[in-house]
Design goal:
Layout (H helix, E strand, L loop, with lengths): L1 E5 L3 H12 L3 E6 L2 H8 L10 H10 L3 E5 L1 H8 L7 E5 L14 H13 L4 E5 L7 H15 L6 E5 L9 H6 L4 E4 L3 H11 L9 E4 L1 H32 L3 H9 L20 H14 L5 H13 L2 H10 L7 E5 L14 H11 L3 E5 L4 H7 L1 H5 L3 E4 L2 H5 L4 E4 L4 H4 L3 H7 L4 E4 L6 H6 L3 E3 L5
Parallel strand pairs: 1-2, 1-4, 2-3, 4-5, 5-6, 7-8, 9-10, 9-12, 10-11, 12-13, 13-14
Helix pairs in contact: 1-3, 5-6, 9-11, 9-12, 11-12
């Protein structure tokens, strides 16, 4: 099938590469020439395990190409095929000042599609967008076609992505479900044809209305965020009673009605989806007169949870951390990604530096991103980023673990203890074994752990 993907960011690049892997002819476009130059030279602008191999194979087999702008992309992908061109909009929907989704890039893409379209097409919203966005996109495309006095058949569908950073390739090739939002039978047939090669059971292909599909994405992320915030609240109760949240989590998760996923206590969720989508859903609810009591609670608990590590550090070491050196392991919001958007490490490091501490931090892949996020702290000498985990802990007064990278779990504890000035570890992800840590002589503090 002939496919145009608008946006070579995280969602767009993964979508383009994976669709091209199934011998579809895919053109991926972007407005950033520097990003496209990197892609043309074989460089992947984001860290995602397995993505480079998929992109390289698709480019090598001539199923995937990159172009600057929608006009060039449509010129390349449109053909005399009787099938409509599938145009995926996969641009960013950043958070507006009021927490709602900013649709300027989505609507700009729709506008240009309408200006450049020459053949029948199905425009597909892959970006996470509020309920009713498909109607806005359809109106924008239709208006541009009207201005051009062109009568080209097109439709707009919703096809939200459910990609976990760090596991996006597997998620795309082995999806739990693929949601297709359309009321048009021709669109449905084309979308099913596109996605059948990705599922072993057609029941995984869920066709619903457009607005239903738009809401499914927000509701899914908000539910997962709710589970995390719920367990973090339980962890705080565990702290007060001196009981182990991991035992509680296991007991709760064994209930088949609940299950164990997303019930791990920690120092708050981050990333490009959960914080933004919960707040956007709050605004969606408010816009139709629904008071989002649960969603507001989820967000409030997460903001509070991001203070958890700092509060425990100052409770142990005092509010004035002047002259103290704190090591931080992990900067990305989760392992297997370099994404630091809304990462808990940001709140912690800025709070530590404000309290007077000298911070030395390590992350296996997020150093380059961190150099931008913390440019001010690095410039004024409050924060140092290092290339090796043990280099961060050398002569540190304490270690705070923020991201649960595998290499931290297998660290040599004897060497760690010898490296630290004081054998104090604050584990914000319950990543380390508290019994083993204490056997090695560490003062260990997890989240909701005895």
């Amino acid at each position: 099938m002939n496919i145009l993907v608008v946006g070579a960011g995280y969602v767009g690049l993964v979508t383009a590469a994976c669709l091209a892997n199934k011998t579809n002819r895919v053109v991926c476009v972007d407005t950033d020439p520097k990003k496209l130059a990197k892609l043309a030279s074989g460089q992947i602008p984001i860290y995602e395990p397995g993505l480079k191999e998929i992109v390289d194979a698709a480019v090598s087999n001539k199923y995937l190409t990159f172009e600057l702008g929608i006009k060039a992309g449509l010129t390349k992908v449109e053909s005399e095929s009787t099938e409509p061109t599938l145009v995926f909009i996969a641009v960013g929907t950043p958070q507006g000042e009021d927490g709602s989704a900013d649709l300027r890039y989505v609507l700009a893409a729709a506008r240009e599609i309408g200006q450049q379209l020459t053949q029948p097409a199905i425009v597909i919203n892959k970006s996470t967008v509020p309920v009713g966005t498909a109607e806005s996109v359809k109106g924008e495309v239709a208006w541009q076609l009207f201005q051009r006095k062109c009568f080209i058949e097109f439709d707009v569908a919703s096809n939200p992505e459910f990609l976990k950073e760090g596991a996006a390739i597997e998620d795309f090739f082995k999806p739990d479900r693929i949601v297709i939002g359309t009321d048009n039978e021709n669109t449905k047939a084309n979308m099913l044809k596109l996605y059948r090669p990705f599922v072993d059971d057609e029941k995984r292909l869920l066709t619903v209305g457009v607005k239903e599909a738009e809401l499914i994405k927000y509701a899914s992320n908000a539910m997962l965020a709710t589970r995390i915030s719920f367990m973090n609240e339980i962890a705080n109760i565990c702290d007060r009673y001196g009981i182990d949240v991991e035992d509680v989590r296991q007991g709760v998760g064994m209930d088949s009605r609940i299950g164990p996923a997303f019930l791990k206590a920690g120092c708050g969720y981050g990333g490009s989806c959960f914080p933004k989508d919960v707040q956007a859903l709050v605004r969606i609810a408010q816009s139709v007169g629904v008071e989002p009591l649960v969603l507001n609670g989820v967000e409030s608990r997460n903001k509070k949870q991001k203070q958890y590590l700092f509060e425990h550090i100052v409770a142990k070491m005092g509010k004035d951390l002047t002259g103290r050196k704190i090591a931080v392991w992990g900067l990305a919001f989760k392992p297997e990604t370099d994404d630091m958007r809304e990462a808990s490490s940001i709140d912690l490091i800025r709070a530590l530096c404000h309290a007077g501490a000298q911070v030395v931090a390590h992350d296996p892949v997020a150093k380059e991103v961190a150099e931008q996020v913390f440019a001010d702290l690095i410039r004024n000498g409050r924060l140092t980023l290092v290339d090796h985990a043990m280099a961060a802990t050398q002569d540190a007064d304490a270690l705070a673990l923020v991201t649960e990278w595998a290499e931290y779990k297998t660290a040599d504890l004897d060497a760690l203890k010898q490296s630290l000035k004081a054998a104090i570890v604050f584990d914000g992800r319950n990543h380390l074994n508290p019994v083993v840590m204490k056997q090695h002589g560490f003062h260990y503090a997890g989240v909701g752990r005895v």
